[in-house]
Amino acid sequence: MKNYPQYSTKQKWxxxxxxxxxxxxxxxxxxxxxxxxYLGGMGNLFTLHKxxxxxxFFLTLWRIIVIIKQGLPKVLPKEEKFQRILSKSxxxxxxxxxxxxxxxxxxxxxxxxxxxxxxxxxxxxxxxxVHGFFHSVHIVTAYLLIALLCLxxxxxxxxxxWVKDNVLKSMLPSRWFN
Length: 178
Ligand code: HEM
Description:
The chain has about 180 residues and is mainly alpha-helical.
């Protein structure tokens, strides 16, 4: 065991798996003109986008349950009150967005969705203006998430290379630092 606070192995797995999936789910629609060709068309591209979104939703619920059960390590010292509040707020809002984004994505469409081409998830029929509302929510929260992700990644890099503390290490496999 290392002498600095660390996230549990389960929390590290959920974090890095979510990071990869969020990267993909954002990249797919933003680069759809280029990627659709390689994925066999726009339909497949959006089936993948939606399916990854559903996985992120359940992964985030699981993450919240794990945090409630295990708690979080105190990676920032008590004296750094401002940074602690900033990092906790950014993390909390990101978890919220990772739940709102898939839900709004699901509710903005009047059509049923196909999870990985395996399971048909029926749509909820709502008035057109309500679908439109969730569409706007999806787009606005997507860009908010991208902004917060930049802040989050900048924070991790700043701590690792500038402050040279253990914040980034607390989320990496401890065997890397033997
Ligand atoms: C964490 C999960 C998700 C993230 C981060 C996310 C993010 C995004 C982003 C960045 C865009 C492009 C916005 C733009 O064109 O400017 C988008 C579009 C879209 N998303 Fe998602 N999404 C998620 C989940 C979902 C889910 C679960 C569904 C449906 C079940 C969905 C359906 C769509 C659709 C249909 C579009 C195209 C909207 C349009 O062209 O106007 N998304 N999403």
